[in-house]
Each structure stands twice: as structure tokens, then as C-alpha cells.
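hey
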């Protein structure tokens, strides 16, 4: 109901009477009034006059009723320790594929290898639960799929030259604006679920990271619409899933890569690999050519652009 009220107020742009709202929504004027008060409590500024109600501003919050097409699959929290932790419990409990867990901030946001992900208000932090019908061998491509979706969204929606750093970062002008984390639940021959965690530096100051990271606001010079970004990104991720088992996904990642064709150093559990990044294999592992011409493959690790 709140979503429907917002849509009507936004479509009109001017005052809409309580009578019109109740008629359009098939409910009483008292019910409309209660829902409008609920919206006001959430931070929406809705003016009332003898001619009706007018929406003058909306809060920068990723509330469920702003994403009505997601229905009950959209779960919003003001603060959680980690959206990945919440999503894991939901996935183990049988939550449907396509369920989204969103938080305005995280107390213990994490990236790869359980590293801290700075997660104050103003960023976009969510985990998407997926139940793809794929063999476990294709699971490593999920990071590629998600990073391509983020880069495409930032390019199409904001006009930013988003590039991909292996294995799971999104960069703009060489500075990190997004990190991605994937966790899987699987059996020997079947994927039960894959949870994709995404953290985007949207409308926040991250001076603590110096020149290594930046926010979308830094590049646009003004606040961006987190709602539009999240909505577009989810749609793009669902589209990209169709490419998981095809070579098109690999080619898409390569076309956006900031890592290929440059000198890199990869720190892995088994040691260090240095050389020129020349390709990714069918599983998304990075292929590095050493000075002696030999080829080595990094399946995971920290990548440093030299």
C-alpha cells in the first residue's frame, strides 16, 4: 500500500486528495491517512492541505516498498552485523532464489578472507540469494557474473568508466568502489545456493582509505540514487545469470578488465606469482605469463597492479 501511495503521489507531482487516493487504492481514507503517517515516520516529507497530499522529498533509504516488484523476497534492515550472515541463515532455511537482504549499515561487514568492509550509512550493502541450476564447476564464475553486472550498471546508469580488477573488485580510475563476495552451499554434484554479497561505496566519505578507494559521489560530484542503482543492478544480475555457462560471460569480463595485459603480482596461499596477466580460463582463474615465458594460473589470491 505504501508503494502504491508513493507511485500515485510521484506520478501526479502535485496534491492528490485523500478521496482520489482511497478510490484508486480501493481502501478507506482512514487507511490512506495511516499509511501516509507511516511514510512520514520513515522520513518522507508529505505535505497536507485542503486540496490533498503532496510528496516533497524522499529519504535516501532502500526500503522494501521502494522495490514492490521484489515482494516478500526483499528484506531491509537498518543495521546488521553482516548481510552475508543473515542471508546464510535464510538460505539454509529454504529461502527462495532471488531473495535480497539489504542493510543501511553493517557492524561487521566483510570481504574476502573475512577482511573488514567499511560499511557506514550511505553505501549499498546487500546479499542476493541465488539457486542456479548449474554444476558446482561453474560456481567460480559467479564472481565474474556479479562484477560484470556492477560494472555494466555503473556505466549505463551513471556514465562512469567502471573496470574490473581480478578477482572481485570494481574500479573507477584505478580506485576501488565496489567489492564482491560469494559463498556457496553445495553437495557433490549440485549447487544448493550461492549467496552474492555486494558492497558499493555510493554516498559516503572514505578518506580513511586514501587513494586506494573512492565513492560514486566523488566521481559524480553529487549524491547518486542508491535506489536506482540497486534496482538496476539486481535486474542486470538476473540477466547476466543466463550467461553463466557460456563463453559470452568470459568475453564480457575480459572486455571490462583492468587487470589483463598488465604486470601484476598475485599473493596466494602457496606463494607469489608475478608476471603479465594474459587471460582468464574457463573458471575465471587468472593466467600469468612469467618473464621466462612460462604460464602459471592463479585460482585465488590478492592481485596487485604494478
Amino acid at each position: 500500500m505504501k508503494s502504491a501511495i508513493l507511485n500515485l503521489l510521484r506520478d501526479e507531482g502535485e496534491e492528490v486528495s485523500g478521496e482520489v487516493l482511497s478510490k484508486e487504492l480501493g481502501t478507506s481514507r482512514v487507511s490512506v491517512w495511516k499509511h501516509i503517517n507511516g511514510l512520514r515516520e520513515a522520513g518522507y516529507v508529505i505535505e497536507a492541505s485542503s486540496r490533498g497530499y503532496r510528496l516533497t522529498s524522499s529519504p535516501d533509504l532502500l526500503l522494501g516498498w521502494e522495490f514492490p516488484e521484489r515482494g516478500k523476497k526483499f528484506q531491509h534492515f537498518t543495521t546488521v552485523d553482516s548481510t552475508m550472515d543473515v542471508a546464510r541463515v535464510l538460505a539454509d532455511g529454504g529461502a527462495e532464489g532471488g531473495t535480497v537482504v539489504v542493510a543501511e549499515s553493517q557492524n561487521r561487514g566483510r570481504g574476502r578472507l573475512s577482511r573488514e568492509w567499511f560499511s557506514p550509512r550511505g553505501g549499498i550493502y546487500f546479499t542476493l540469494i541465488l539457486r542456479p541450476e548449474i554444476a558446482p564447476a561453474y560456481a567460480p564464475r559467479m564472481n565474474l557474473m556479479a562484477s560484470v553486472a556492477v560494472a555494466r550498471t555503473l556505466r549505463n546508469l551513471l556514465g562512469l568508466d567502471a573496470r574490473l580488477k581480478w578477482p572481485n573488485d570494481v574500479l573507477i580510475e584505478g580506485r576501488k568502489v565496489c567489492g564482491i563476495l560469494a559463498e556457496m552451499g553445495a553437495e557433490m554434484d549440485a549447487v544448493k545456493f550461492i549467496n552474492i554479497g555486494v558492497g558499493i561505496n555510493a554516498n559516503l566519505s572514505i578518506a580513511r582509505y586514501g587513494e586506494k578507494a573512492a565513492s560514486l559521489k566523488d566521481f559524480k560530484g553529487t549524491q547518486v540514487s542508491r535506489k536506482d542503482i540497486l534496482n538496476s543492478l539486481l535486474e542486470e544480475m538476473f540477466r547476466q545469470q543466463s550467461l553463466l555457462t557460456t563463453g559470452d560471460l568470459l568475453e564480457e569480463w575480459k572486455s571490462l578488465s583492468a587487470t589483463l595485459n598488465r604486470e601484476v603480482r598475485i599473493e596466494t596461499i602457496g606463494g607469489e606469482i608475478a608476471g603479465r596477466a594474459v587471460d582468464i580460463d574457463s573458471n575465471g582463474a587468472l593466467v600469468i605469463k612469467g618473464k621466462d615465458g612460462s604460464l602459471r594460473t592463479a585460482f585465488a589470491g590478492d592481485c596487485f597492479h604494478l
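The chain has a mean pLDDT of 92. The two ends are 53 Å apart (CA to CA).
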